[in-house]
UniProtKB/TrEMBL annotation, chain A:
CDD domains membership: GST_C_Tau, GST_N_Tau
Record PANTHER family: GLUTATHIONE S-TRANSFERASE, GST, SUPERFAMILY, GST DOMAIN CONTAINING, GLUTATHIONE TRANSFERASE
Species assigned in the record: Castanea mollissima
GO biological process per UniProt: glutathione metabolic process
Name under which the protein is recorded: glutathione transferase
Automatic annotation (TrEMBL), chain B:
The EC number(s) this enzyme carries: 2.5.1.18
GO molecular function, one term: glutathione transferase activity
Compartments, record wording: Cytoplasm, Cytosol
Gene3D superfamilies assigned: 1.20.1050.10, Glutaredoxin
PANTHER family, sorted: GLUTATHIONE S-TRANSFERASE, GLUTATHIONE S-TRANSFERASE, GST, SUPERFAMILY, GST DOMAIN CONTAINING
Protein's UniProt name: Glutathione S-transferase
Keyword Cytoplasm: yes
A Gene Ontology biological process term: glutathione metabolic process
One matching Pfam family: GST_N
One GO cellular component, as annotated: cytosol
Keywords: Cytoplasm, Transferase
Amino acid sequence: MGEEVILHGTWASPFSCRVIWALKLKGIPYEYIEEDLSNKSSQLLQHNPVHKKIPVLVHGGKATCESMIILEYVEEMWPQNPLLPTDPCERADARFWIKFAEEKGPAMWTVYRTSGEEQEKAVKDTLEMLRAIEAHGLVDKKYFGGDKIGIVDIAFGQIAQWLGVIEDIVGVKLLEAHKFPRLHAWIKNFKEVPIIKENLPDRDEMMVFFKHFREMLLTSSRDS
Amino acid sequence: MEKQNEVVLFGTWASAFCKRVELALKIKGIPYEYVEEDLTNKSVSLLHYNPVHKKVPVLVHNGRPISESLVILEYIDECWNNTPKLLPEGPYQRAKVRFWVNFFDHQIMARLLPIIMTRGEEREKAIKEFNELLKVFEEGINKDFPEEFPFLEGKTLKYLDIVVGTALCNYEAFHEVVDVVFSHEKNPVIMAWVKALKNHPLMKETLPPHDKFVDKMREKYLGQYP
């Protein structure tokens, strides 16, 4: 696999980080291109004409889009340090949780982006998501992947850092340790994994960035 | 002694997501037991097998449950690793197929509810968006799978055929109950694909009968009972 690997991403995006974590866990060398989303590169627009979003992985000139689809591609292309189990039932279970993360994850971003009734509903949805994970996803397991992190841990990475940032900025505590003991323990364990620890965006920088971005969003929605 | 391959599918007859799984099982020639669920009175088994969502379809294979239609399809393809394969072999082609199935489910099919819930100008706008997204889909599939597309008579059904067919083959029922959203003029390539899919014997066998489906849609979307 001597072909060039390029990742188009943004430093603060949890979706971009998912791909970085997977590449680093597998020891795959890659070139990283930081995109300015207000001025997207021509390569990004060429490689993801449908959504024009990051992350995009370009391998040997061929582009793959959508973070979890990229992860399955990376897993199949570079099988070392597997992120998915080998047993088909366990793989199906992992994919179930990936779908869950993709379907329910956006609620926490709705908490971040909105106010009033819409935000209240998003808070409820986020709590429901956390309850389901707490009750069914981490039973007797240190990580979603078992004894070591896997693709589901990566999929839920947003909960480990971005959720906390959202909580601080919006001023609402969703993931209370005593209500979600398993998730709380998982966050601590996940962030201690060396590759994750070394590749999480700086929390203070995230606070500045997301605070500023939220102010812009709320101002523009008030003005429109 | 080899363990019996026991396959049970919990589903509802009108759900495209359930039909996806049925079709996949038939394509692979996998014998299964079908359990029709009453969603107003879900069985203890369903609640036990899918505690997170309590939804159909659920496939139970030798007692182990799998939920989410696309997850089930990939599971079936992996477990019954014989021909015909539902997904392509190469990682890049698999990524492409997953991308377009994702697009179909989350962008295209998500546009049906806004059409159902609106009237007049708002509905016209929603239908236009639906057609534009179908166009993006047509062009994308054409570009990424030039040999596979469009679906030809006599070909084996694959992952994309299953997803598109179970969603769109009953378009006439949608037209009768809600509105005309899908035409040869606006989306000729997909229309040709869907018409070819409708003629496939396994698709004919799997899809819900038209009149029964129309009644069900009237009940669901218009609150009208036969």
